[in-house]
């Protein structure tokens, strides 16, 4: 009797572990999503700027400029340890030998070419909402940037966060393809939602996180502690930011606030990227921010 | 005058000058307050240029030119006042409300390069502001970049 109960418990545990193993498995994009016309590098340059790739993937202290060298190496402190941005330049150390589909899978699903999870320091939870064609365009642009043979530095994470398989659980809890600000938005706010939620990943810094590092979508864009430990990332919902749409768009273009102070910290890098978008796209982001539910 | 006496007089003069310079440096609290006033003045003139760039007020070449001139003068003055503004003991870790990161003193060479970029960007604006509105609008991005680059590296984020 006892043996049978033990046996059943063991079987259940095995089943649970097996289910967990299956549930936490990396899930690449389906073939039909990856198939499509080849990327357009000129279009991709704007997607690349909107997605803010260079701000994280250039070398520490390096300028972004017109042809950033995506050699990686910048450190990102978090409550789970320190992440180091990898080399994503078109080289053997970077992603030069990867197929387009492998790069798109990395960006939109957080899955490496060998099938391992990437940590969500790469904001694939945002990029998962992107148009696959935009991602193919982005890849075409990426391949035209200067190569770097800089070696990748391993992340510095304590146990249990050092186990990549655990990221599968995080993905189960946090990957959503739906918009955070859902429903129909009037143009240009809808275009702005696409830029802000799928590409520019504003929420990664401006939204507070739960204990496991998932974004608290009920408090979307309402401000959060600065992961670097200095100050706070501001609330940019209408409850926290009363600038006009014109003022927001102008800030994203030049870095000047309405009283002509300027963006500092990481936001100065974001402005550098947003300045490369069209004025229509910046106005769209401003319109979107006015559509976000106000959170005190 | 004999050479030794000339040398002695020169040395005495240098010592006196050095004494004068240290006597003239501001107290850290005072340096912090004056730096902030200086930045706010720059903001005032930027505000005139920016209102025209954004179309909130009509473009006027004379007004824009004067604001750009004042801004360029203020940018020069930041550099010239370096020794009295960036005194030891006035960083964000030493003065309440100061946002001047200790990195300024650790990387003074880099900090001064940013000041030179600011002078350059204000001089570009000085040429552009009196020309026409499109030129003024075009120069705003460069100014924002010069301000932002330095703030990114050397200014403490807001609490």
UniProtKB/TrEMBL annotation, chain A:
GO MF: electron transfer activity; heme binding; kinase activity; metal ion binding
Keyword Signal recorded: yes
InterPro entries: Cyt_c-like_dom, Cyt_c-like_dom_sf, Cytochrome_c-type_DH
Listed Pfam families: Cytochrom_C
Domain Cytochrome c: 39-146, 187-293
Taxonomic superkingdom: Bacteria
TM region(s), chain numbering: none
Keywords, in A-Z order: Heme, Iron, Kinase, Metal-binding, Signal, Transferase
Signal peptide coordinates: 1-24
PANTHER family, per the entry: ALCOHOL DEHYDROGENASE CYTOCHROME C SUBUNIT, BLL4482 PROTEIN-RELATED
Protein name (Swiss-Prot/TrEMBL): Diacylglycerol kinase
TrEMBL record, chain B:
N-terminal signal peptide: 1-23
GO cellular component assignments: periplasmic space
Keywords: Electron transport, Heme, Iron, Metal-binding, Signal, Transport
Post-translational modification as stated in the protein's UniProt record: Binds 1 heme group per subunit.
Listed name of the protein: Cytochrome C554
Record: residues binding heme c: 147, 150-151
Organism: Limimaricola cinnabarinus
InterPro entries: Cyt_c/b562 (IPR010980), Cyt_c_II (IPR002321), Cyt_c_prime (IPR012127), Cyt_c_prime_subgr (IPR015984)
One biological process term in Gene Ontology: electron transport chain
Domain of life: Bacteria
Source organism phylogeny: Bacteria, Pseudomonadati, Pseudomonadota, Alphaproteobacteria, Rhodobacterales
GO molecular function, one term: heme binding
């Amino acid at each position: 009797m006892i043996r049978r109960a033990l046996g059943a418990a063991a079987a259940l545990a095995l089943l649970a572990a097996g289910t967990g193993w299956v549930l936490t498995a990396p899930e690449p994009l389906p073939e039909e999503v990856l198939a499509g016309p080849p990327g357009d590098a000129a279009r991709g340059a704007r997607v690349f700027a909107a997605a803010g790739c260079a701000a994280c993937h250039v070398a520490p202290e390096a300028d972004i400029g017109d042809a950033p060298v995506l050699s990686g190496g910048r450190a990102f402190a978090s409550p789970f340890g320190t992440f180091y941005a990898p080399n994503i330049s078109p080289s053997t150390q970077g992603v030069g030998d990867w197929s387009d589909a492998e790069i798109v899978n990395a960006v939109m699903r957080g899955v490496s070419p060998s099938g391992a999870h990437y940590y969500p320091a790469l904001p694939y939870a945002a990029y998962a909402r992107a148009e696959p064609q935009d991602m193919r365009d982005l890849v075409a642009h990426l391949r035209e940037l200067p190569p770097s043979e800089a070696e990748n530095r391993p992340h510095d994470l304590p146990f249990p966060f050092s186990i990549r398989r655990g990221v599968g659980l995080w993905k189960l809890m946090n990957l959503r393809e739906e918009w955070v600000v859902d429903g129909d938005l009037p143009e240009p706010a809808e275009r702005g939602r696409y830029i802000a939620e799928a590409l520019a990943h504003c929420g990664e810094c401006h939204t507070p996180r739960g204990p496991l590092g998932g974004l608290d979508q009920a408090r979307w864009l309402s401000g959060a502690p600065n992961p670097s430990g200095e100050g706070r990332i501001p609330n940019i919902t209408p409850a926290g930011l009363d600038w006009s749409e014109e003022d927001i768009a102008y800030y994203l273009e030049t870095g000047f606030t309405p009283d002509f102070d300027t963006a500092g910290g990481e936001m100065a890098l974001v402005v550098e990227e947003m300045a490369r978008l069209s004025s229509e796209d910046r106005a769209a982001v401003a319109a979107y921010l006015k559509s976000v539910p106000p959170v005190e | 005058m004999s050479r030794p006496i000339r040398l002695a007089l020169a040395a005495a003069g240098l010592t006196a000058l050095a004494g004068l310079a240290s006597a003239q440096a501001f107290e850290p609290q005072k340096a912090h307050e004056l730096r902030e006033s200086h930045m706010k003045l720059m903001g005032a003139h930027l505000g005139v240029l920016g209102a025209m760039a954004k179309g909130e007020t009509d473009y006027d070449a004379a007004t824009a030119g004067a604001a750009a001139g004042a801004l360029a003068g203020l940018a020069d003055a930041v550099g010239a006042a370096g020794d009295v503004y960036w005194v030891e003991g006035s960083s964000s870790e030493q003065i309440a409300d100061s946002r001047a990161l200790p990195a300024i003193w650790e990387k003074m060479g880099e900090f001064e390069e940013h000041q030179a970029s600011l002078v350059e960007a204000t001089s570009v604006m000085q040429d552009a502001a009196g020309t026409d509105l499109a030129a003024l609008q075009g120069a705003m991005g460069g100014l924002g970049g010069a301000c932002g680059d330095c703030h990114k590296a050397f200014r403490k984020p807001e609490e």
